[in-house]
Write a structure and sequence with these properties.
Layout (H helix, E strand, L loop, with lengths): L7 E2 L5 E6 L35 H26 L4 E3 L13 E2 L4 E3 L1 H10 L4 H4 L3 E7 L10 E7 L2 E5 L10 E7 L5 E6 L6 E6 L6 H5 L2 E13 L4 E7 L12 E7 L1 H9 L1 H17 L4 E5 L8 H12 L8 E6 L1 H6 L4 H7 L2 E5 L7 H14 L7 E6 L12 H8 L2 E4 L5 E2 L3 E6 L5 E5 L4 E6 L2 E5 L2 H14 L3 E6 L7 H11 L17 E4 L3 E2 L13 E4 L5 E10 L3 E12 L18 E6 L46
Parallel strand pairs: 2-6, 11-12, 11-25, 12-14, 14-15, 15-16, 16-17, 17-18, 18-25, 20-30
Antiparallel strand pairs: 1-2, 3-5, 4-10, 5-10, 6-9, 7-8, 7-10, 12-13, 19-21, 21-28, 22-23, 23-24, 26-29, 27-28, 29-30, 30-31
Helix pairs in contact: 1-2, 5-6, 7-9, 12-13
């Protein structure tokens, strides 16, 4: 990537330059083009000798010419040291843009060696220190864009600032502006979109949120149309969890196109059968007033994918489908395989639902690269919707919910170096599985749980925050929620999604860090750390037992930042005879209870330490049976704010 400057004198007499960003990688230094122009006569001819300035004017022109040569040589000195090369970087963090903008060009930066040598050469030269404006031309991505929404940004001193674009510039595929070099050493073109985002839904809507979701719903997959072929004939089988005669069946209710692999192979390979089913599918959609067709490309072998793209393009041409939706869902891997068919797919579809990658793949980083390549290729990103399954799906385990995993982690290990626990003794408390931990994974944008040599990623409202923020940043069509069972979606997640849709939230949050650490609470004695405080070392902790014997409660609380699970044990603390004889009483009555307490939403102000009310009083007299206690209530405190 290179700049080609062409210098000329402005009306103010200061040197200016024009830079063209080129794709061929060539570059030329300052002073490669230079011209000095005298005034024109009325006919526009500058060659008539009688019109050339004479006398004092000629002397002035001569002096001005000498100054021009000085400027030329100064600029030429810069050229002799280095050439001004603008380079594009793939490492730039696009998500640092001002919120709501979409990238529409490469991110260009002036070569640092050129800036350094420019400053060295021009250190003592007034001409170089002047506010010299240079014209730059920047190519934008190959797509149809509303030029009224384009803006040119530069980043300096930790802030983005806008550089005005030239109003009179009309070259297609480029924008132009005047910038001060080297004070402006980076440039990027962005767009301020006006896309209204909505929700898509696959499966049953949660009853409690049905009315709220419907206000934002634009596509809802509620049934299926199955293709069945026999040796002699075939038929369409319609299955739906909605009555086709229901007046609510309308433009947002979709049928999923399904069938066996063998039937689809015959359908796609036989033109006559294919044409017959194209007509039948479009007739059913039109006559029963469905909103359109939904096709999951992941349900078919990869060799059928190009044929299915062509099938959908043919379906789009049917008159009955002119006002109906065609929606396709696929993974990033499938999109990469369909590189040559991608533009045909996105042009024939109303929406493309891109599956949210596995947290282990660093999903937002992967999606950033994918969407950037699509934008460069001319894809309409306003047709793209992110589809995610909000149910907890830990890998390599039969555990199906975060609560179950947290309950398994909340097993207490007590080490005291003897058969009995004595007064004023130091006792070590820790998780039974010492390698178990809960933490925020910066690459996955998810809470992660390590337990028994496995890592589990938990979908909760914090992950939802970053997904919704990503959708807003790229101005995608919106979020598509996959939930065969509406009970799979937690209340905090759904509440958060609706808050984003209602624009009551505009930035993501991370979980409050101390909540992810084990919390220990005792009814007597002292602990070496305090629950839910920043910088507190909670693994393991030392419990100094009370100086009075009795039965005391030890409570362990573990959390993923949203759900809190407690386990409790009651222990007898005994007093040793001062003469060194055996303890005055023997035995202990350990008990354990587990309680799961979901916390739907953190409160606005963090509390640095646990409330004193969560510590129960010691029980001076032993009880014959175990007595469970309620789960400790976590102190109010929000997740810490995360950078956008």
């Amino acid at each position: 990537m290179a700049l080609r400057p062409a210098f000329f004198f402005s009306s103010e007499g200061w040197p200016q330059g024009r830079f063209d960003f080129e794709q061929d990688g060539s570059s030329s230094g300052f002073g490669s083009k230079y011209s000095f122009e005298g005034p024109e006569n009325e006919s526009g001819n500058t060659d008539e000798r009688d019109r050339f300035p004479k006398g004092p004017i000629a002397a002035f022109v001569l002096v001005l010419g000498v100054c021009a040569l000085v400027v030329y040589f100064v600029i030429d000195r810069v050229e002799s040291h280095d050439e001004p090369v603008w380079t594009s970087s793939d490492q730039f963090d696009f998500r640092l843009f001002p919120k709501g903008y979409i990238q529409r060009s490469e991110y260009y930066s002036l070569h640092p060696d050129f800036v350094k040598k420019w400053n060295t050469v021009c250190a003592d030269t007034l001409q170089c220190e002047s506010d010299n404006l240079f014209q730059v031309e920047i190519p934008i991505f190959d797509q149809i864009i509303d030029s009224e929404q384009l803006k040119l940004f530069t980043f300096s001193d930790g802030y983005w600032r806008v550089i005005p674009l030239s109003d009179d510039y009309g070259h297609p595929g480029k924008v132009s502006s005047y910038v001060e070099i080297p004070r402006v050493d980076n440039l990027i073109v962005v767009e301020s979109p006006a896309n209204e985002q909505s929700l898509g839904f696959y499966g049953l809507l949660p009853k409690v949120y049905e009315d709220s979701v419907m206000r934002h719903l634009s596509a809802h997959v509620v049934g299926e149309v199955m293709i069945e072929l026999s040796e002699s004939s075939g038929q369409l089988v319609i299955r739906s969890n909605r009555d086709q005669g229901d007046p609510q069946v309308g433009k947002q209710e979709l049928l999923q196109l399904t069938g066996s692999e063998s039937d689809f192979r015959r359908l796609l390979s036989d033109t006559v059968i294919g044409e017959s089913y194209l007509g039948e599918i479009s007739r059913v959609i039109e006559s029963q007033h469905w909103g359109g067709i939904f096709l999951d490309l992941e349900a078919f072998p990869s060799d059928l994918e190009p044929l299915l793209v062509t099938f959908l393009a043919d379906l789009r041409q049917r008159n009955e489908m002119s006002a109906k939706q065609i929606i396709v869902v696929l993974s990033i891997e499938t999109r990469q395989r369909l590189e040559t068919e991608w533009l045909e797919l996105i042009e024939s579809s109303d929406e493309v639902w891109l599956r949210y990658p596995s947290p282990a793949l660093r999903p937002l980083e992967l999606l950033d690269r994918t969407l950037l390549s699509l934008a460069k290729g001319g894809s309409d990103l306003s047709k793209v919707r992110l589809m995610t399954n909000l149910a907890a799906q830990p890998e390599h385990s039969t555990i199906t919910t975060p609560d179950t995993l947290l309950e398994e982690m909340a097993s207490i290990s007590i080490q005291h170096g003897g058969d009995e626990i004595l007064t004023s003794q130091k006792v070590t408390l820790q998780l039974a599985e010492s390698d178990s931990e809960v933490y925020w994974d910066e690459g996955a944008y998810s809470v992660a749980l390590n337990h028994k040599a496995n890592t589990y990623f938990v979908s909760n409202r914090f992950t939802v925050d970053f997904i919704m923020d990503f959708i807003s940043f790229w101005d995608l069509r919106g979020l598509a929620i996959e939930a065969v069972d509406s009970n799979e979606i937690s209340e905090p997640m759904m509440t958060r999604i609706l808050a984003w849709q209602d624009e009551r939230v505009d930035s993501p949050e991370k979980p409050f860090g101390p909540y992810l650490e084990p919390c220990w609470i005792v009814s007597g004695g002292t602990l070496s750390s305090v629950c839910w405080t920043v910088g507190s070392a909670n693994r393991p902790v030392i419990w100094t037992t009370p100086d009075k014997p009795g039965v005391y409660a030890i409570k362990l609380v573990v959390s993923d930042g949203e759900t809190f699970v407690a386990n409790e044990r009651w222990l007898r603390v005994q007093k040793t005879d001062i003469s060194g004889l055996n303890p005055t009483s023997v035995g202990s009555t350990p008990t354990a209870t587990s309680t799961s307490v979901p916390t739907p939403q953190a409160t606005p102000t963090p509390t640095p330490e646990a409330s004193a009310t969560v510590t129960p009083d010691a029980t001076p007299e032993p009880t014959p049976t175990s007595t469970p206690s309620p789960t400790a209530t976590p102190p109010s405190g929000p997740p810490g704010p995360a950078p956008n």
